[in-house]
Amino acid sequence: MNHRDLKRHLKATGNLQQELFSEANRIRQQEIGTNVYFRGIIEFSNICEKNCYYCGIRKNNQKTKRYLMNMEEIEKCLDFIQESNYGSVVLQSGELTTPKAKEFLLNLVEFTHKHYPEMGITLSCGEFDYDFLKQLKKAGTHRYLLRIETSVSSLYKKLHPNDHSLAKRKQCLENLKKLDYQVGCGNMIGLPEQTLDDIISDLLFFKEMDFDMFGLGPYVIHQDTPLATDENQKWWHENKENIFNMTLNFIALLRILIPTCNIAAATALDVFRPDGRIMALKAGANVIMPSVTPQKYRNDYLLYQNKPCVDGNAERCYRCIIKKTRSAHLNPVLGEQGNALHYLIRTNGKT
Ligand code: 5AD
Ligand code: SF4
C-alpha cells in the first residue's frame, strides 16, 4: 500500500472497512492462527513524576489519590493470575525513577520470577536508563511496553511539557531492543490536532522499528487535564465515532504490515462501545489484558475518564473476557505465555 492507500484505509467505514478487516484476518489466520493470549494486568502504583497533558494520573493532578500496592497485595494478584492460567502478567505503573522506586520494581520482578517461574513478565513503567533496564531484564522481565504516544515531534511537544523528550523515549526503545527484550510500542489515536498524516507516520515508524508487540488505543479525554479545554472536549465528543473507527483500522493495518506481531486490544476501546475490545480482536488484535487490579484501587488509576470495569473485580473480568473472546469465534488460550512470534523469529527462539 502506498501513502494514499494507507490514508484511505485509515479513515475507512462501511464496505471498505469490512474489506480491510477481512484482509487483516486472512493474514492473521495465515501467520499466527486464531489464538488469543491473555495478560493479567496489575496497576500496582499510580504515582508518576511526569506531567503528560492528556493523562489523568499526571503528577500535577491533585484530585488523584496516590497509592502503591504492598507486596502482599501484589502477591494475591499474582496468585490469581496463576490460578486463572492467564500465562503472563503486565506490571504497570506511573513513571517513577527515584532509587527507592527502582529498588521496589527490581524486587518485584525478582519475586515474581522466583515464585511464578512459568509466568511471562511484561513491564509498563515508563522510561529508565540503560543499566537499570539491563538489571530488570536480568531479574526475569521478558517484555517491555513503552508507547511512543506520537512519533511526530511537533505534536509530541504540544502534548508534553518541555522536559519530556521524544528523542529520549526513542532512545529508550532502542535500548530495550539492544537488551533483547520483547519490545512493545504504541500510540494514541484521535489526539487534538493530530492529522491523518501524523497517524500514518506512527504506522511507518512502527514498521521501521519493527517492534514485536503493540498496545495502542484511542485518546479519551480526561476532564482534569490541561488537554481538556472546552474546545477540545466539544471536539472530542463530536469525533468519538471517527476516533473509534480509526483505531480499529489502525490495528488492521498494523496486522497487515507486521503480520507476526502481538497486538493488544486496549481497554480504552470499551469506553466507546461495550464490545470495543472484541471488535479490536476481530480487526486483527490477538492479545487481551484483563484487569487484576484490586477493586479498591481501580478508581484511582484513571488515565482517562469513563474507564470501564472500575466497579468490577478480577473474577468478573475473567468470566467476561473468556466469554467475549469465544463469541468472536477466536480461541482463548490459557496456560501459555503467548510470546510474539515476531520476537521468536527475530531472535531465533530466545525468550
Ligand atoms: N486516553 C487514552 N490513553 C491514555 N493514556 C494516558 N492518558 C490517556 C488518555 N487520556 C495512555 C498512554 C500511556 C498509557 C499507559 O496510557 O498512551 O502510555
Ligand atoms: Fe505518567 Fe504515563 Fe500518565 Fe505520562 S502517560 S503522566 S508518564 S502515567
Short key terms for the protein model shown above:
alpha/beta; 14 helices; globular; 11-stranded parallel β-sheet; binds iron/sulfur cluster; 351 residues; binds 5'-deoxyadenosine; single chain
3D architecture notes:
With 351 residues, the protein is of the alpha/beta class. It has helices spanning 3-10, 14-31, 71-84, 99-115, 130-138, 153-159, 166-178, 196-209, 230-238, 240-257, 276-283, 295-298, 314-327, 341-346; strands at 35-38, 40-45, 88-93, 120-124, 143-145, 182-185, 188-189, 213-218, 262-265, 287-288, 331-332. Strands 1, 2, 3, 4, 5, 6, 7, 8, 9, 10 and 11 form an eleven-stranded parallel β-sheet that branches. The chain starts with a helix and ends in a 5-residue tail after the last helix.
Write a brief caption for the model:
The chain is an alpha/beta fold and 351 residues long.
Helix fraction by DSSP (H/I, runs of at least 4): 40-55%
Total of helices: 14
H/E element sequence: HHEEHEHEHEHHEEHEHHEHEHHEH
The biggest beta sheet reads:
11 strands, parallel
Ligand list: 5'-deoxyadenosine, iron/sulfur cluster
Class based on secondary structure composition and strand pairing: alpha/beta
Shape: globular
User: How much strand?
Assistant: 5-15%
Question: How many strand units?
Answer: 11
As residue ranges, the low-confidence spans are none
What would the average pLDDT be, to the nearest integer? 96
Straight-line N-to-C gap: 32 Å
Gyration radius, in Å: 19 Å
